[in-house]
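Example 9 (inverse folding). The structure is encoded as follows.
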């Protein structure tokens, strides 16, 4: 049962954990409902209509739970289904989406790369995002083959190999890297270690969590009591998959404990959720 203000997070898999972690850190008293879709994942290769339907179906599963806000911590789902979600829930329930942190990376004025899935790297969406926010400066696009899938499986050996391969293809002149998939912050420490020339990793999880609090008119209060965490798997009550336990943040969320700063992704960039 939900006890206080509640936020539902909708993603196909573990990509929702970094944003959930930041919400749990900034406002521990929020009740969180983690809506994952193991029956439909991955969403990336699906058609836009299919992604939208999967997202709306997940939202319908929480519609009767007195949810105060909905967060979509998935770039693909945000660009595809956010308008449909807002038409269903707003203005009564705010809906917050996620975009890769290209804008703050560009604002730093230093060369940077965007790490993303192969599909996102080749997408018109990423091209439009870079065109809109990179201020004309060149941006290196690095497809991280297999990294999101390895994170989803909790396969740390495959994670290591995928990061090493992406690091080899990241030009040495880049001093920043945008984490363009919401799975990647779960392994941000290893990504940072693989890129000694990179000073900043840009991620949007913290900013999306803070935007959610703003939409709810809630101040940051890390000292509050702990709220509940519920998990829905394709609409059915369940638990976080075993693969979540491969990551310290996943283990902490699964156990329902307080989330300390050291468990959260490094160098989260402050780019507003939209």
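The amino acid assigned to each position is listed next.
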């Amino acid at each position: 049962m939900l006890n206080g203000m509640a936020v539902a997070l909708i993603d196909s898999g573990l990509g929702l954990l970094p944003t959930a972690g930041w919400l749990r850190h900034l406002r521990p008293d929020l009740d969180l409902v983690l809506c994952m879709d193991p029956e439909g994942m991955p969403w990336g290769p699906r058609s836009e209509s299919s992604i939208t339907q999967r997202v709306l179906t997940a939202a319908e599963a929480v519609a009767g739970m007195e949810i105060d806000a909905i967060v979509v911590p998935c770039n693909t789902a945000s660009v595809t289904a956010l308008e449909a979600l807002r038409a269903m829930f707003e203005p009564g329930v705010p809906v917050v989406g996620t975009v890769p942190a290209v804008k703050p990376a560009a604002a730093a004025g230093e060369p940077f790369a965007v790490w993303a899935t192969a599909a996102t790297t080749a997408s018109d969406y990423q091209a439009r995002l870079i065109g809109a926010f990179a201020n004309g400066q060149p941006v290196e696009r690095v497809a991280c083959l297999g990294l999101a899938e390895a994170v989803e499986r909790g396969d740390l050996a495959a994670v290591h190999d995928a990061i090493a391969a992406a690091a080899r293809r990241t030009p040495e002149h880049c001093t920043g890297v945008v984490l363009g998939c919401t799975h990647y912050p779960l392994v941000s420490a290893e990504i940072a270690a693989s890129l000694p020339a990179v000073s900043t990793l840009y991620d949007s999880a913290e900013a999306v969590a803070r935007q959610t609090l703003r939409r709810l008119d809630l101040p940051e209060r890390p000292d509050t009591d702990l709220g509940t965490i519920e998990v829905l798997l394709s609409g059915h009550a369940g638990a976080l998959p075993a693969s979540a336990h491969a990551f310290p943040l996943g283990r902490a969320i699964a156990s329902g404990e307080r989330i300390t700063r050291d468990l959260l992704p490094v160098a989260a960039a402050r780019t507003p959720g939209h």
